[in-house]
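To whoever is on call:

I kicked off a structure prediction for a single chain this morning and the downstream step that reads the tokens threw a length-mismatch warning. I double-checked the sequence; it's 84 residues and nothing unusual in it as far as I can see. Pasting both halves so you can look.
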Amino acid sequence: MRRLFWLAFGLAAGAVSAITMSRWTRRQVQRARPATLAREARGGLLDLSRLVSESIDEGRRAMDERERELRTKHDIPGPGRDAA
């Protein structure tokens, strides 16, 4: 009786592990497909370009603000205003 129990237990454990590994392997293959990798890379590049663009915009705003501060402090007319 004990041998029958352990035989059934071993068969069940083997079946469960085979199914689990099959599913895991299928997911890994899906993740490694060229279309999936390209989509993830494109998403990463879009995020990077958005961050760079926001950084450049923030730098320009800070530069313009600092220029206005310095022009006001030193009483220098800004662009578009007469120097007279």
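Update from on-call: the warning came from a stale cache, not from the record. Cleared it. Sanity check on the structure: Residues 34-74 form the longest helix (41 residues).
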